[in-house]
């Protein structure tokens, strides 16, 4: 293949693969959990997808380079907060290494089960891991959704595309 990417004998180059997915928009979420010492940890994820309705389940990918990776992968439960456009600052805060993600700028409270809940997010899914599969420089986590907190708002979804945050425009006609 030589049109816009390069294939070598070992497969698609990492840079071509990364470039291909830079142009594939995805939803944005913040994943939170307690670490082993009971403190909050979290990160921004754009690799979250629904995989089953019965039982309700999702899949997400956690990069091993993420500072919260070890704690999230060890957690027996975590929250996936699905973000809307007005949550862009939250997405940026949890995506930035070295910031105090749970500092004064972040409204959060622990659930009775201990996971940090971000009430500004319109939806939070409480998840229990079903499997953790290392794949290259990440781990793919499949999780059962065991609870849903929803504000009932139908805001504009926050989307990640080409290294930036965007909002969706009006829906296209169905026919």
From TrEMBL:
**Where exactly are the transmembrane stretches of this chain?**
none
- A molecular function (GO) term: FMN binding
Q: Name one Pfam family in it.
A: Flavin_Reduct
Q: Which UniProt keywords apply?
A: Oxidoreductase
Among InterPro entries, the record links this protein to: Flavin_Rdtase-like_dom, NADH-dep_flavin_reductase, Split_barrel_FMN-bd
| GO process terms (BP) | pyrimidine nucleobase catabolic process
Stretches assigned to the Flavin reductase like domain: 21-167
Q: Where is the signal peptide?
A: none
**Name recorded for this polypeptide:** Flavin reductase (DIM6/NTAB) family NADH-FMN oxidoreductase RutF
Q: Which organism is it from?
A: Pseudonocardia cypriaca
């Amino acid at each position: 293949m030589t049109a816009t990417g390069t294939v070598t004998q070992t497969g698609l180059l990492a840079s071509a693969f990364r470039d291909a997915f830079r142009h594939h928009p995805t939803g944005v979420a913040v994943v939170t959990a307690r670490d082993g010492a009971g403190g909050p940890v979290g990160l921004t994820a754009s690799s979250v997808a629904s995989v089953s309705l019965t039982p309700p389940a999702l899949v997400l990918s956690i990069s091993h380079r993420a500072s919260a990776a070890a704690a999230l992968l060890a957690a027996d439960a975590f929250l996936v907060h699905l973000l809307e456009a007005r949550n862009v600052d939250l997405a940026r805060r949890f995506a930035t290494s070295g910031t105090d993600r749970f500092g004064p700028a972040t409204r959060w409270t622990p659930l009775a089960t201990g996971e940090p809940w971000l009430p500004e997010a319109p939806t939070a899914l409480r998840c229990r891991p079903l499997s953790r599969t290392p794949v290259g420089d990440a781990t793919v986590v499949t999780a059962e959704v065991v609870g849903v907190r929803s504000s009932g708002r139908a805001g504009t979804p926050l989307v990640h595309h080409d290294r930036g945050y965007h909002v969706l425009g009006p829906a296209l006609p169905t026919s």
